[in-house]
Automatic annotation (TrEMBL):
Residues 84-168 form the PDZ domain. This is Membrane palmitoylated protein 4. Residues 1-57 form the L27 domain. Keywords: Coiled coil, SH3 domain. The keyword Aminoacyl-tRNA synthetase does not apply. The lineage of its organism: Eukaryota, Metazoa, Chordata, Craniata, Vertebrata. Transmembrane segments: none annotated. It comes from Cairina moschata (Muscovy duck). CDD domains: GMPK, SH3_MPP4. Residues 315-504 form the Guanylate kinase-like domain. InterPro entries: GK/Ca_channel_bsu (IPR008145), Guanylate_kin-like_dom (IPR008144), Guanylate_kinase_CS (IPR020590), L27_dom (IPR004172), MAGUK (IPR050716), MPP4_SH3 (IPR035600), P-loop_NTPase (IPR027417), PDZ (IPR001478).
């Protein structure tokens, strides 16, 4: 394969494609072979290596790191045999990630700053944080900068010999493993403060991390639960990440309309319109939804535990979130009508007058303005708003009524309401309904109808689809850390089936939930 020139492969494929159309014998098999992921990956790796050899880059480490990263990504597409898995593991944890070193400001000594949990140095049991480095492969390191020592290591091949003076008090490990949900994104390559970007662990909000070392007040060691076989990487400690978030937040220009424009959702039209009106009238982030916008400044990690609902326990509340028109109500309606004895919505409260054909507790709970406001002040409303002078809202009591009947309560909320619903009692499972691409929606939403501020049952226009996409992106950016599940609503039948199985999974399978919901009976 190494002899094959990549460019000529591409032209060969084009020729074969023509032959394939003409149905020449055996060409189909060859065409499929050349199109296969593993061969493509192999060729790309070969191309990378040629490029790398041609450039003979300096310094070697940076280029090697980029190549390493590229190859790991390519191997992701290759068939997952045992060897490929091992190769990916090794490439993601090369020997340089086994430990980090630092230079003592006064003495100039090079010492081991930390040993990376699960890395080669750790597994060898020979290196400890605080050990003083004297020689690497026979080269004295006295007077050198850490980068120079790293270059010696990078250029070394085979066995690496360290001469070192062990730290006098080798630390006894008494770490307890902690699991957290990342509430913010982190990219070590964009963090100038990280002691060693190579050893950093990038993560996205919502990912669950296993924290294995908190010895350093600033830099912890962690791995992702989705890949516990990988060696640990450095992440900013709770305290440090909070400081970074705060600095970043203050450095941003003031944006009074940063909040999401609200959508309507809920089965009753007034309730939907009231939400839209209420949220569209928002003046600024600070005035109306500090909980959501300031959440970036709240704890950057949330401690989580694995929770499996006991069959005798109440069901978990199911919350659907999504941009206006994405199909939250359609999916909710389909789910409930698939088995009304199992699923039910919460009946909203309103201050408007009951109509002759309505029944208290069926369409709405009809209450006085005073009662409604009391419910708001005593935090018994998950969300509420005003429409044509009347108040509308979904209460915790209404949700509790459904749960007490042993049913699964399915509601939809504005994302701003997620944090209010996240309580020990309701243990909500949050499902984000995401729009498919605009080109797909053009096809699937041909006969669909939306409710806008001024019209009911309007056909979707191009700008509605664009707004849906923009709004979904903003929701994911601001609230993605709270989503337990994301369902793309492309094909309605498929999305409904996915919703049904997600709802059952939430009730019957172990899930990561905030530790606070489980460890304390008194916490919210
Ligand atoms: N996957 C889909 N394919 C085709 N049509 C869909 C799909 N999902 C939803 N629809 C249709 O799109 C329209 C809007 O859906 P729905 O009323 O559920 O939106 P929503 O998310 O609840 O937003 P809003 O609260 O603003 O109405 C409805 O006509 C619905 O039947």
């Amino acid at each position: 394969i190494a002899e094959v020139k990549v460019n000529s492969m591409h032209s060969l494929k084009s020729v074969l494609y023509l032959d394939l159309i003409l149905d020449v014998n055996g060409v189909g098999m060859l065409y499929d072979l050349l199109r296969s992921h593993w061969l493509q990956a192999l060729l790309k790796i070969y191309e990378c290596l040629q490029n790398y050899l041609g450039k003979r880059p300096m310094p070697v480490t940076l280029q090697a790191r980029a190549l390493n990263h590229e190859v790991v990504e390519l191997l992701r597409e290759a068939p997952q045999s045992g060897e490929i898995k091992e190769l990916r593991r090794l490439l993601r944890a090369p020997h340089l990630r086994g430990a980090t070193i630092k230079r003592h400001e006064i003495t100039g000594d090079i010492t081991v700053a930390r040993v990376i949990n699960g890395g080669l140095a750790d597994r060898s049991g020979l290196l400890y944080a605080g050990d003083k480095l004297v020689e690497v492969n026979g080269v004295p390191v006295e007077g050198l900068e850490p980068e120079q020592v790293i270059n010696i290591l990078a250029l070394s091949q085979g066995t690496i010999m360290f001469k070192l003076i062990p730290v006098s008090d080798r630390p006894v490990s008494n770490q307890t493993t902690l699991y957290v949900r990342a509430m913010a994104d982190y990219c070590p390559l964009q963090d100038p403060a990280i002691p060693c970007a190579d050893a950093g662990l990038p993560f996205k909000k919502g990912e669950i991390l296993q924290i294995v070392d908190q010895n350093d007040a600033l830099w912890w060691q962690a791995r992702k639960v989705s890949d516990l076989s990988a060696c640990a990487g450095l992440i900013p400690s709770n305290h440090l990440l909070k400081r970074k978030q705060r600095e970043f937040w203050w450095s941003q220009p003031f944006q009074p309309h940063l909040c999401l424009k609200s959508s309507m959702s809920g089965f009753r039209r007034s309730m939907r319109l009231c939400r839209r009106k209420s949220w569209n009238n928002q003046q600024s982030c600070y005035a109306r939804c500090p909980s959501s916008c300031y959440s970036a400044l709240a704890a950057p990690y949330e401690e989580v535990v694995r929770y499996q609902r006991h069959p005798a326990d109440r069901n978990r509340l199911i919350v659907l979130v999504g941009p206006a028109g994405v199909g939250v109500n359609e999916l909710r309606r389909r789910l409930i009508s698939s088995n009304p004895r199992e699923f039910q919505s919460a009946v909203p409260h309103t201050t408007r007058v009951q109509k002759s054909y309505e029944m208290n507790g069926r369409e709405y709970h009809y209450v006085s303005k005073e009662t409604f406001e009391n419910m708001v002040y005593s935090h018994r409303m998950l969300e509420y708003g005003e429409y044509k002078g009347y108040l509308y809202g979904t209460s915790v009591d209404a949700v509790r009524t459904v749960l007490d009947e042993g049913k699964i309560c399915v509601i939809d909320l504005e994302p701003q309401g997620i944090q209010i619903a996240r309580t020990h009692e309701l243990k909500p499972y949050i499902i984000f309904i995401k729009p498919s691409s605009i080109s797909c929606m053009r096809q699937t939403r041909k006969n669909a109808r939306i409710i806008t501020d001024y019209y009911v049952n309007m056909k979707f226009k191009e700008e509605d689809l664009q707004e849906m996409e923009d709004s979904a992106k903003k929701m994911e950016d601001q609230f993605g850390q709270f989503f337990d599940q994301v369902i793309v609503n492309d094909n309605l039948q498929e999305a409904s089936a996915q919703l049904l199985s997600a709802v059952h999974r939430a009730q019957d399978e172990p899930q990561w939930v905030p530790a606070m919901w489980i460890c304390s009976d008194t916490q919210p």
